[in-house]
Amino acid sequence: MGKILKQRIKQKRFESAAQEVILNTLITSDYLSQLLVDACENFGISQPQYNVLRILRGAYPEGYARYDIADRMLERAPDVTRLLDRLARLKLVVRGKSPIDSRLSIARITPRGLALLEKMEPAIQRIYRHVEKKLTAAERKAFSKLCEKLYGDQ
Fold it and tell me: Cα angle vertex 140, ends 13, 147, to 5°?
């Protein structure tokens, strides 16, 4: 095991199987993340901005408060407010007061934001198809289950 990993990081052996799992996971995460980063950059947004738009599309048309967006982010983002500011400047998101609690600011995806996600969809689907070509349905299911087993008790 680990032949490709050994070649990739130019290492002959690992301290343990756990170390090999961690290294493989980090390299795989970086690889898949870079595919998403590249796809997003082609449309003028960052991967975290795409993530926010995807989250807000799921709440359309109501939107979410900043803390709800932060809870749903795939990767922890230290400053969701800044992400929302940038998206608002691009007119992909609007923010307004909550009808229930005027102290809360609610972010909503705009029609322009929805259109951008629609335009991006073929690029995102290519990434999904890439994974589908590399892993069988059973392997994808097992991989997801193993990943959840590692982080599921957070």
Answer: 60
CATH assignment of the domain containing 129: 1.10.10.10
Whole domain around residue 99: which residue ranges? 18-149
Does residue 120 lie in a domain region? yes
Domain count, the chain: 1
With respect to residue 13, please indicate whether it lies within any of the assigned structural domains. no
What tens digit of pLDDT does each residue of 61-100 get?
999 999 999 999 988 878 899 999 999 999 999 999 888 8
Q: Which residue has the tokens 């073929």?
A: 122
The residue written with tokens 């975290």 in the block is: 48
The sign of the CA dihedral 9, 134, 53, 153 is: negative
Sheet holding 93-97, edge to edge: 64-65, 105-109, 93-97
Cis preceding linkage at 99, omega within 30: no
Query: Residue 100 pairs with which residues in a beta bridge?
Result: none
